[in-house]
Write a structure and sequence with these properties.
By secondary structure, the chain is mainly beta. The protein is built from two helices and 14 strands; from the N terminus they run ααββββββββββββββ. Strands 3, 4, 6, 7 and 8 form a five-stranded antiparallel beta sheet that branches. A three-stranded antiparallel beta sheet has the order 1-2-5, with no helix packed on it.
Length: about 220
């Protein structure tokens, strides 16, 4: 009798194991984590509350299969910053679809951070999509602007700004303005601190502005 009981119990156990092993039963009970977002971009913006503090705008595109996604998590140097649950970004991508975005503040000028975004669903959290960027603000104005007139031209020179805003100066833009209708000549300089603007009209008063630009 003991032997039969042991065999009967053994048979029941074998049936239970075979049911658990049926393909699809376990998979149907658990949803899988979503794929990671794509096309992460980080664009410095002017901080409307305090221009001396960096504001970095993160923008990304949802994964192809986004039906079950409940939100996105934004991390800075591995620490959770916020969970984005609605479309908050007004920019339109080339496919005429709204992108997701988040603004990150409380950063140190000139410091490099690792920004990451994950997608979240009932099945869990995706792998992170991450980028490293330096937190920057707009540079200060160029110094000691000098303008020397010549025949139908102006030679403009200047010194670099005291503050680069945490990033390298990418270029300088020199513009002229006058009472004459239509656009006036300008020049764009990558690394030098002088340029000659040609195509002007002799005897006309021109105002000259010099602008320094970095990644912000």
């Amino acid at each position: 009798m003991l032997g039969r009981h042991a065999l009967r119990s053994l048979g029941l156990a074998a049936v239970a194991l075979s049911l658990l092993a049926v393909p699809g039963l376990q998979g149907a009970a658990q949803a899988k984590a979503p794929a990671a977002p794509t096309q992460l971009r980080i664009v410095p913006q002017e901080n409307p509350i305090d221009p001396s503090q960096p504001l970095m705008r993160l923008r990304w595109t949802p994964p192809a299969d986004k039906a079950d996604i409940t939100g996105y998590r934004v991390y800075v140097d591995g620490e959770l910053l916020e969970t984005v649950r609605a479309v908050t970004c007004p920019e339109i991508n080339p496919q005429n679809l709204l992108r997701w975005c988040a603004n990150v503040t409380n950063l140190q000028v000139g410091q490099v951070y690792t920004f990451a975004v994950t997608a979240v669903s009932k099945g869990g959290e995706s792998k992170p999509l991450s980028l490293q960027r330096m937190a920057v603000i707009a540079p200060s104005e160029p110094l000691n602007v000098q303008v020397v007139p010549d025949d139908k031209s102006l030679t403009v020179s200047w010194d670099p700004p005291l503050s680069t805003g945490g990033g390298d100066i990418k270029r300088y833009i020199v513009r002229t303005s006058s009472f004459l209708p239509g656009p006036t000549p300008a020049c764009e300089i990558i690394t030098a601190t002088s340029c000659k603007i040609k195509g002007l009209t002799n005897g006309v008063h021109y105002d000259v502005t010099v602008e320094a630009r970095n990644a912000a």
